[in-house]
Amino acid sequence: MFEKVVVGIDGSASGSPVIEAAARLSASTGAGLILVHAAELSYGRTAPHHEAVKVGSEILAEAEAAVKGLGGTVAKLVDEEVGLKGPAGVLDDVAVKQKADLIVIGTRGRGVWVGSVLGSVSQRLLHNPPCPVLVIPNHT
Length: 140
Hints:
Blueprint: E1 4-9, H1 16-29, E2 32-38, E3 41-43, E4 48-50, H2 56-69, E5 73-80, H3 86-98, E6 102-106, H4 112-118, H5 121-127, E7 133-136
Parallel strand pairs: 1-2, 1-6, 2-5, 6-7
Antiparallel strand pairs: 3-4
């Protein structure tokens, strides 16, 4: 059923349920996971700047180790610059290029009002996805 699954990884604590769900899906179906990190721009007082919490390669390495620890298979690691399309656009592009069967992404848990004002990667991705999307809620 699922051979290639794109998984959005952001390195946040709320991302661990996404990694766990994707790893368990991979372990049970044999799907190869394509872990994707697309750093968002955050806006400060003077200008936008990249998230500097962790480097993308560190985030992907931690996610890969977690997936393997849960019995999942990592097929590919992708670290992309956001650009004008935003993280949702990056996930969409990777899913199309890799001919993915599913995209797994989480919610950040900002709430309805903040999410509607600031936007949400999961909300944007659901508008016109190239394949089915599984959204894992953040319950922290």
